[in-house]
Amino acid sequence: YFVGALLGTLDPAEADLLLSLSAVPSFSVGLAAELTGCPDAGTTVERLRDGNDLLQRIDGGDEGCEYRFDESLRRTLLTELSRRDARRLDDLRRTAARWHLESGDVHGGLALAVASRSTDLVEEILRRYGLGMVFSGDTAPVRDALAALEDRGVMSGTTGLLAALVTSPTRFDSVRTDHFLALAEDEAARSPESELVLAGILGLRADGEGQEARDRALTRIENAVRISLRRPAGEGGALAVLDARIFAEAARASLLLRSGRA
Fold this sequence. Notes:
The protein is 71% helix and 4% strand. It is mostly helical and 262 residues long. It comes from Leifsonia aquatica ATCC 14665.
């Protein structure tokens, strides 16, 4: 009732603006303009904010300030937006995800891509940024995205490689990891960084096995390193290749140490 009364006091364009902006947890003037298609969205937001606490202004950020709805109001607006057009809500979140990515905010972009239920966009982000996030220790968002994809029955080379990588080393011998690695073989053929990571994971698995298995793993790592020096980087760029090479070399050092050749 409350949100209906609130929207009823506004003209249709203003009501639609509020509904559109509720699709995201917070927004800058630039994102507001992107989501609503209104270049002067910031002016409208300031006018609607004046004299009430339902829309809060938070100073700071790249554009000087951000805005956030009172959470109870946002939930109510989201319910109304979903009731009117659930597909539009997903579209708005996809738009916001791409805006965040273009602004350099991978975390925000990935979270909104997951919320938008766009498996293609989530996979695209993981393919481009996933390895870098994991190697920087930022595994929680990657795990959340992988879980969302798995819940929707989406498993691929990209997800298999990342899932195997974020699995605890103590579980590298699990049947579940075998499944991830089988999927990852497809991804490894696409980019040198993927082959380096896969070779490193297999090397860590072989570390506790016999010498013959360790020798095979060492050969694969060495081949992966040579390939990475000749082939162009994949979507993650040169930094992802460097991170992956460091990971593979660490696995190689562990194998050499176990073999008594370090």
